[in-house]
Amino acid sequence: MAQYTENSASKPRILTGDTPTGRLHLGHYVGSLENRVQLQDQFDCYFIIANVHAFTTRAQQPTDIRQSVLDIAADYLAAGIDPGKSTIFVQSEIPAIAELTFFFSMLVPFSRLMRNPTIKDEIRDKNLGDSYSFGFLLYPIGQIADILAFRPALVPVGEDQLAHLELTRETARRFDQMYCGVDPQTPDEQYVRAGGLFPIIEPRLGRVRRLVGLGGPGPHGQLLKMSKSLNNAIYLSDDPDTIRKKVMSMYTDPNRKKATDPGTTENNPLWIFHETFNPDTVWVREAMEKYRAGAIGDVECKKKLVEVLVALIDPMRQRRLIYEKDPAQLLAVLREGTARANVVAEETLRLAKIALKQDYRPRTLL
């Protein structure tokens, strides 16, 4: 029985990333990106731009997908991801992921795949009906391969990705039990030490699990999450004037007709944003009390929020402009990162083929 060792790097490994559907917004920032920046010194970080997954719903828009790849890379760098510390790479340039996707697809029953609530939500939210492609259903399996190809200890994600991560955990257990001889009674944290190839990964949630958008409630009365498709987002690349316009038009308490009316702070995006982004907690606490008492108006509170968000976003926007003016620099970062990522993924594929008894010849990527 082959024995595998845990990541030999001096730091435990992280894998996470984004599907390139456009520029990143504040929901991405507090849900995961902020967390990634803070973890760079503690972990060996790999950040995937999952461009193949973008084809599951945008197959007719390859030029847009390519631009989105560059946009996300620029957002990563502008937010503080350091390519000297972390590896940023493009999914389609890692052939081991595609091979692992095929092998993992044999380990996930179709019925289990269709119980994935994220799949159901996307079919509903994107009005796909029954016209979605086979590749759309393959996407969760590809995401398993994205993660396990790098055998990470942690995966920083937003709350909406937890169902995908649970499927990844199930697949890692099944592979290790079936092909590496790991006892099913083994505790998750002991799988690699028990002879497994794949660790049973742990999610790491950001400080805000689900940031609401700028608009009002959805059809069932709940506040909708920030989303490009819902046109309710503030982007990390927005200029101060755009931020001001968006904030001044954001949904607050619909029952408050004038500044002297008592207002509700609960489930009010204005106050959710202040609690999330405003570092002056004393001002936030006192202003919320005034708002509930009808002693402060929406306009004053929105102007304060504009100041807070511009102070957060504008330094990122300025750094982003540097990369926008030099696409060759972005491509260089992606090529260097992809080369490093291929070394790790190819080693995982080699070990997986040994476990699968399908190791017939050595393979070297040029």
Overview of the structural elements:
The strands form three sheets. The chain has a three-stranded parallel beta sheet with strand order 1-2-3. A two-stranded parallel ribbon has the order 4-5. A two-stranded antiparallel sheet has the order 6-7. The protein starts with 12 loop residues before the first strand and ends in an 11-residue tail after the last helix. The chain is 51% helix and 9% strand. The protein has 13 helices and seven strands. By secondary structure, it is mainly alpha-helical.
Q: State the CATH superfamily name of the largest domain.
A: HUPs
Order of strands, widest sheet: 1-2-3
End-to-end distance, in Å? 31 Å
Question: Do you know the CATH topology of the largest domain?
Answer: Rossmann fold
Shape, per Cα inertia axes: globular
Unreliable segments (pLDDT under 50, ≥5 consecutive)?
1-8
Mean pLDDT across all amino acids:
91
The helix content is 40-55%
How many H/I helical runs? 13
> Biggest sheet, in brief?
3 strands, parallel
CATH structural class of the largest domain = Alpha Beta
Domains (count): 2
Topology readout:
Layout: E1 13-18, H1 26-39, E2 44-49, H2 51-58, H3 62-79, E3 87-90, H4 95-105, H5 110-114, H6 117-125, H7 134-148, E4 154-157, H8 162-180, E5 202-205, E6 212-217, E7 223-225, H9 240-248, H10 269-277, H11 281-293, H12 298-324, H13 327-355
Parallel strand pairs: 1-2, 2-3, 4-5
Antiparallel strand pairs: 6-7
Helix pairs in contact: 2-3, 2-7, 3-12, 4-7, 4-13, 7-8, 9-12, 10-12
